[in-house]
Amino acid sequence: MTRAVERLVNLALYIAGSRKSVTASDIREAVAGYPADADGSAYRRMLERDKESLRATGIVIDVDDVGNYRFNRSASYVNPVSLDPGETVALYTAALSLLDDPSFPFSADLRLALVKLAAGAGGAETATAALADERPAEQGALVSDLAAAIMTRKRIAFGYSDSAGVASERDAEPLGLFLHGGRWYLVGYDTAICGMRTFAVARMTRLSVNRTAPKTPDFEQPAGFDVARFISLPFQYGPETDGFIAVLGFDGSAAWKAERITHGQGTLTPDGNGNIRWEVPARSATQIARFMIENGPGLTLVAPPAAIEHLQAGMQKVVTLHG
Questions:
Q1: 282, CA 20 to 30 Å: which among 205, 214, 234, 246?
Q2: pLDDT in the model for residue 200
Q3: How much is the pLDDT for 266?
Q4: pTM over 0.85
Q5: pLDDT, tens digit, 9 for 90 and up, residues 204-256
Q6: CB neighbour burial string for 163-201, b if at least 16 within 10 angstroms, e if fewer
Q7: Phi, psi of 108 (to 5 degrees)
Q8: Which of 116-125, 161-170, 230-239 has the highest mean pLDDT?
Q9: Within 10 Å of residue 288's Cβ, how many Cβ atoms?
Q10: How high is the pLDDT of residue 238?
Q11: Edge-to-edge strands of the sheet including 267-270?
C-alpha cells in the first residue's frame, strides 16, 4: 500500500516531469497511491488535498479552466539571487570555512552548493577541480531522474565508464542516492553481477527508466536496506583505478566496535584470542588511511602493502608538519 507521503512525492514528480498539462484521469492512471475503487468525487477531493499539501511545501500545481493540471515552475521557486563579485567572494569564503567544522551537519550539501556558486561566478573549472569532479547541472538532472526511479521502484538502464575507463551497459534496480565529497553516488542492485554496487553518477550516460506499467513497481527494496551503510565506508568508492581487498585487524581493545563500524560489509573473522580480522573490498587507499585514523586506536591495516605504505607516508607527513 502506498503511503500518503509517497503518493505526494509521486504526484509532484509526475506533474513536474510532464511536458504538457495533464488531466485528473492521467494522474489517476499514472500516479501510484490513488484508490482504484474511489468514486470520482472522492478522488477529486483527495487530489485537491494533495495539491494543497504540495503548495504548502512550495510546489505549486495550477489548474486551468478545463481542469488540466500543470507544474508552475516560476511560482515554485524563489526569485534568483544576484551577487556582485565582492559578495560572491565573501559568501564563498564564509561557507568554505564550514566544510572543516565537524559540528556543521550539512557539509556534503554545502560542498555541492559551493561548486554551483563558483560556477555561477565564472569559476566553474577551478571550483569543480577542488570540490567535485562533475558538472553540477548535468549531475542534478541525472539525480532527479534517479530519485524518481527510486521512489517508484522502476528499473533503470545506462551506460557506465568505470574508474579505469572501461565502458559497459548496465541494468540495475536503484535503491538509494547519497552525496559525498561534492559527488553523487547511486546504490543499486546490478542485475549482471547479481549483487549490490555503488555507481558514480558522473560516470553514467544514456540513463533510461522503465516506463512500462508506471503504477506497478518493478522490484521490492531489500529488507533492512540502509544507504547509510554505503556512505559510512567511503573507501569503497572514489576516483582511484584499481579495486583491492583491504585487510584490517581489530585488537582486543577495539573488537567491540567491529560490528558497528563495518556496517555488514566484508567478512569478520575472530581469531579465538579476542582479535578480529576484517576483509573488505576497497578502491581508495587514501580513504582507507582516513578511515583508519578516524576509527583508531586498536585498528591495524594488515594488507595490501601499497595501502600500508600510503598510510605510513601520510602519518610521516603529519609528523613532519607538526613535529
A1: 205
A2: 84
A3: 84
A4: no
A5: 999 999 989 888 899 998 887 878 777 778 787 755 456 788 999 999 999 99
A6: beeeeeebebbbbbbbbbbbbbbbbbbbeeeeebbbbbb
A7: -65, -45
A8: 161-170
A9: 25
A10: 58
A11: 267-270, 276-282, 244-250, 299-303
Residue type, 84: D
Is there a contact between 12 and 19 (Cβ–Cβ < 8 Å)?
Answer: no
Which one, of 58, 78, 218, 200, lies nearest residue 143 by Cα?
200
Report, in angstroms and rounded to the nearest whole number, the Rg of the chain calculated over CA atoms: 24
| 17-67 per-position pLDDT tens digit | 887 889 998 898 888 888 877 888 889 899 999 988 888 778 888 988 888
Q: Residue 107: what are its φ and ψ, rounded to 5°? A: -65, -35
Retrieve residue 177's grid coordinates: 542516492
pLDDT, average across residues 73-101: 69
- 285 C-beta neighbours (distance < 10 Å), count: 24
CA distance 297 to 121: 44
Query: Are the C-beta atoms of 280 and 267 separated by less than 8 Å?
Result: yes
Please tell me whether the peptide bond between 297 and the residue prior to it is cis, using omega within 30 degrees of 0.
Answer: yes
CA 173/CA 197 separation, integer angstroms: 10
| End-to-end alpha carbon distance in the chain | 61
